[in-house]
Design brief:
This protein has two domains: 1-30, no CATH class; 47-102, no CATH class. With 104 residues, the chain is mostly helical. The longest helix is centred in the N-terminal third of the chain and has 14 residues, at 12-25. A hairpin with a 2-residue loop joins β1 (3-5) and β2. A two-stranded antiparallel sheet has the order 1-2. The chain has helices at 12-25, 47-59, 73-85, 96-102, and strands spanning 3-5, 8-10.
Length: 104
């Protein structure tokens, strides 16, 4: 479904493109005045890289959600299953050893 707004059409893909642009310009996630979280050795990935991880997990039958670059509960569950099956720490975090094993 698309809707005409300000002389253009805004559809789902347009919204994903907008979100990707905003996330590339703004520190993400927004933390306000909260102190930074403790390091988890998690690698920060761009939206296209997260989509690549989701595609790899989907190809392995470990993820059945949408390929949107949003690494939510389903993505983390698939990643945990991948990590457990490959002798990695199954914490659902995008660590460098996990990414190396996935080939991303």
């Amino acid at each position: 479904m698309t809707k005409r707004i300000n002389g253009g059409t805004i559809g789902l893909q347009d919204r994903f493109n907008w979100l990707e642009k905003v996330q590339s310009l703004v520190a993400w996630p927004l933390t306000g005045n909260a102190p930074p979280p403790p390091p988890l050795n998690e690698v920060s990935l761009s939206i296209p890289q997260l989509k690549s991880v989701q595609l790899k997990l989907e190809a392995l039958g470990l993820y059945d959600g949408s390929i949107d670059g949003i690494f939510g509960a389903r993505s983390r569950a698939g990643l945990k299953a991948f990590q457990a099956a490959n002798g990695l720490t199954a914490n659902g975090r995008l660590t460098q050893p996990t990414l190396d094993k996935l080939g991303v």
